[in-house]
Amino acid sequence: MHEESGPASGAATATIDPPKPRRIAGTLYRGREGMWSWVLHRITGVAIFFFLLVHILDTALVRLDADAYDAVIGTYKTPIMGLGEAGLVAAIGLHALNGLRIIAIDFIPGATRVQRPLFWIAIVLWVALLAGFLPRHLMHVFGGA
Amino acid sequence: MTTMTEEPGNPSIEAGIAAFTVTLIIRRFDPETMSEPIWQDFDVEMYPTDRVLDALHKIKWEQDGSLSFRRSCAHGICGSDAMRINGRNRLACKTLIKDLDISQPIYVEAIKGLPLEKDLIVDMEPFFASYREIQPFLIASKEPKDGKERIQSVAQRAVFDDTTKCILCAACTSSCPVFWTDGQYFGPAAIVNAHRFIFDSRDEGAAVRLDILNDKEGVWRCRTTFNCSEACPRGIEVTKAIAEVKNAVLSGRPSIPTA
User: Fold this and answer.
1) B225 in Cβ contact with B190 (< 8 Å)
2) Which of B34, B223, B44, B183 is nearest to A39 (CA)?
3) A106, B112: Cβ pair inside 8 Å?
4) Contact B226/A113, CB-based, under 8 Å?
5) Distance, CA of B47 to CA of B14 (rounded, Å)
6) Chain A: nearest CA to B29, how far in angstroms?
7) Is B51 helix (H, G, I), strand (E, B) or coil?
8) In B30-172, alpha helices (H)
9) Do B115 and B177 meet the contact criterion of CB atoms below 8 Å apart?
């Protein structure tokens, strides 16, 4: 390594093909449904935590200044916040359904053998929940009234 | 004997299985000359019936003798050659080339979460330290009834049969996302080997082991990602064993058949 600035040093050591630098990092571990359900669970969990933090702060505002509270709640009626609410419901729904799957894995003997079907059942239920919620919610957000 | 001399090299078999060129991309690291690992390509002629370990041998013996990896028995029992093959933990000696997608290069790298020593070799000491900590030996103070044997029923033996299969290859522990970021976590392998004795009707140390695993870095670190169950080359249902230990911690004792 101490010779790397010298122009001729590269050729002198090249008895075999010098290793071609590719990516430095390792490959992404190819986990299956279990690992990705955990990744989603963690992401949605952290997102919900930050929402609850803000939500407790804005609700606490009503005890300090009612007008400021009204102003903050008023901003929630903008389309951007409406989309954020849709994301919040999606995150809570996924976290809740996968949470039931994790409880089953921990407490029901034999559930570990069906963890993969349980994950897909949770996903189907989640999509069904959102299919019922999203059209109505988006009508409220973008349809005025 | 006579057929062997008449047909040297057994051409009928060799004609039936065609050799092909496989590209292996191996993550190399030499602590004396490199600061970061790099990926290096090797092309080798292999048969579909060869294993990834055979490809590594061919590279080491014919192309680059500096390639370092561990292997002992080469038949899936010693647990020396766990490595990440195409992003999943496997034993190189149990992974057939034909079971991989050979139209693509095969990526081979060391297992994750343990200190990298050289090429495909990691320092296994943190792994074995966790193993030692759960006291992986029979604790029995009482003399056997007839002075000879500690009799066990078939049902009593069956509850921990699965966890006796462990070969300590570290494929499970180094596939665990919790272990990658938190090296203090006991890891699946240590819990599996604790399970093997906690659920043994002859053993008297269950309370001690459950107390060790009822720790911040014990069984409660498990996030049920199932990477360990999928990585185990012996097919041990690792997450199931961990769930059983979790329940044994909660109820204070393992549920073992009385007879």
Assistant:
1) no
2) B223
3) no
4) no
5) 10
6) 11
7) strand
8) 52-58, 125-133, 154-158
9) no
pTM, 2 dp: 0.86
Tokens of A91: 């995150």
Best of A15, A101, A112 to disrupt the B interface (most B CBs within 10 Å) is: A112
pLDDT in tens, A92-129: 999 999 999 999 999 999 999 999 999 999 999 999 99
Using DSSP, state whether B30 is helix, strand or coil.
Answer: coil
Alpha-carbon distance A13 to A73, whole Å?
69
Q: Cβ contacts (< 8 Å) between B36 and chain A: which residues?
A: 24
Q: Do A26 and B112 touch (CB under 8 A)?
A: yes
- DSSP secondary structure letter of residue B96: B
Q: How confident is the model over B156-180, as a mean pLDDT?
A: 97
ipTM comes to 0.85
Report the CATH number of the A32-142 domain: 1.20.1300.10
Chain B: closest CA distance from residue A8 (Å): 18
Candidate from B37, B87, B226 with C-beta closest to A115: B226
Q: Tell me the three state secondary structure of residue B11.
A: helix
d(CA A97, CA A107): 16
**B87 and B110 Cβ atoms separated by less than 8 Å:** no
Closest in B33, B109, B223 to A26, CB measured = B109
Subunit contact A27:B33, Cβ cutoff 8 A: no
**All structural domains of chain A with their residue ranges:** 32-142
In chain B, what is the straight-line distance between the N-terminal and C-terminal CA atoms, in Å? Answer: 55
Q: Report chain B residues whose CB lies below 8 A from the CB of A28.
A: 87
Share of chain B above pLDDT 70, in %: 94
- Chain segment B20-32, per-residue pLDDT in tens: 999 999 999 999 9
